[in-house]
Write a structure and sequence with these properties.
Layout: H1 4-19, H2 25-36, E1 44-49, E2 55-59, H3 72-84, E3 91-97, H4 103-108, H5 110-130, E4 140-148, E5 154-163, E6 165-167, E7 173-175, H6 187-205, E8 222-226, H7 231-239, E9 252-255, E10 260-265, E11 272-277, H8 279-287, E12 298-302, H9 309-319, H10 325-332, E13 348-354
Antiparallel strand pairs: 1-2, 1-13, 3-5, 3-8, 4-5, 4-12, 6-7, 9-10, 10-11
Helix pairs in contact: 1-2, 3-7, 5-6
């Protein structure tokens, strides 16, 4: 089965030559890093197993967020940390999506407008939760940005994991009200708040950009449901993409000179289907989900913000006083160690380094020749 790196090695140079200076530096860097990942160009080390005596060569990873081979260890570390920060309450899964008419503008001004998308999503949720009719207190949220559909189209939306309660001014925990206890805030009111707040932030962030006409009856999709299977299931779903991008290596079915075929699950009937795209179109779709350098795809707000760790620990103890939180956290802090492929032992010792061979795969379009452009990849 081919991998994303195989697709890049086969078609990346042609893509850069075709689009040249229109390619963003972050996209060219992603192509370069993925092509070199875990090859002799990156260097590596020789590890000796002290149990069976075998020696194994391991080449270094590129650690690019777009790479399908990297990120597994960092994802597991992120999941362990987030599990430590979970409150012993039910959680809600909330999703904020913008209309299709605004997607191109967001794609052309990603740093400003994706940040506005984060802010609008949490501020609209927080405002409603402060209302005494619903919760009347401060809430927290873990927000993760996704920018893709299942066919790799540009489709920015925010996933949020929200505890089912709030902290009032007196330090009391207020749980969600309602006969079914599955109601956080009204979705229609949340969608209206989100619409107004996002458009306000967009006009402030890019005042010279003309927004398309959006009728008042235009539906803004906001999804809010309790996490029936527990917050761990939603965390696992979000964890698939926190340190990776839109497509995994397992989804690639075939790579030829004329097309790249990948597997996806249809959102309508949940059936597995395949799609074949020309190599340039496949790389265009894939690269548009590479975030600008320095942009954070994961953000915490309110009670889950890093500045609120003391308050969060107190809530964990208050809501689950009989549980030994500290012992649970210690059990979670288990570091994965590399294992010997021959005997599965963890007693591997690095005996020597492998020097990187260097060199550039894409000499036709050096990174230094590519300007900083405030737009997405070529259409």
């Amino acid at each position: 089965m081919p991998s994303l790196a195989d697709v890049v090695r086969r078609h990346g140079s042609d893509y850069l030559m075709r689009f040249g200076r229109a390619v963003l530096p972050s996209h060219a860097r992603a192509l370069r890093d993925m092509a070199r990942c875990r090859t002799e160009e990156m260097g590596g080390h020789i590890a000796h197993c002290e149990d069976c005596g075998a020696e194994h060569s391991r080449h270094h990873s590129c650690r690019n967020r777009a790479c399908g081979q990297c990120g597994t260890d960092r994802t597991e570390a992120w999941l362990r940390l987030q599990r430590e920060l979970l409150l012993p309450v039910r959680y809600f899964h909330v999703v904020f999506t913008v209309p299709a008419e605004l997607r191109f503008i967001i794609r052309s001004h990603q740093k400003q407008l994706l940040t506005a998308l984060f802010r609008a999503a949490f501020e609209s949720l927080s405002t409603l939760c402060w209302d005494p009719k619903y919760l009347g207190g401060r809430v927290g949220a873990l927000a993760v940005l996704h920018t893709w559909s299942r066919t790799l189209e540009w489709h920015p939306h925010i996933h949020m994991l929200v505890p089912s309660g709030a902290l009032d001014d007196d330090g009391r925990w207020i749980t969600v009200r309602g006969r079914k206890k599955e109601f956080l805030v009204p979705v229609k009111a949340l969608a209206r708040k989100f619409r107004g707040r996002f458009l306000y932030l967009v006009r402030r962030a890019v005042p010279t950009v003309r927004l398309p006409y959006l009728p008042k009856e235009k539906k803004w999709n906001v999804f809010c449901k309790p996490s029936v299977q527990g917050p761990e299931r939603v965390l696992e779903y979000l964890g698939r993409y926190v340190h990776k991008t839109a497509l995994s290596n397992r989804a690639i079915v075939e790579c030829t000179d004329r097309s790249v075929t990948f597997r996806y699950r249809d959102s309508k009937d949940q059936r597995l289907r395949t799609m074949a795209l020309p190599p340039r179109e496949f790389l265009r779709r894939f690269l548009q989900h590479v975030q600008p350098r320095g942009f954070h795809r994961i953000r915490s707000y309110g009670l889950l913000h890093s500045s609120q760790r003391v308050t969060l620990r107190r809530l964990q103890l208050m809501l689950q006083p009989k549980a030994s939180v500290d012992s649970t956290l210690e059990n979670e802090r288990v570091n994965r160690r590399p294992r010997c492929p021959a005997c599965n032992s963890e007693r591997l010792r690095i005996v020597r380094q492998i020097a990187a061979t260097g060199g550039r795969r894409y000499s036709e379009a050096k990174l230094s020749d590519l300007p900083q452009l405030a737009r997405g990849p070529p259409l």
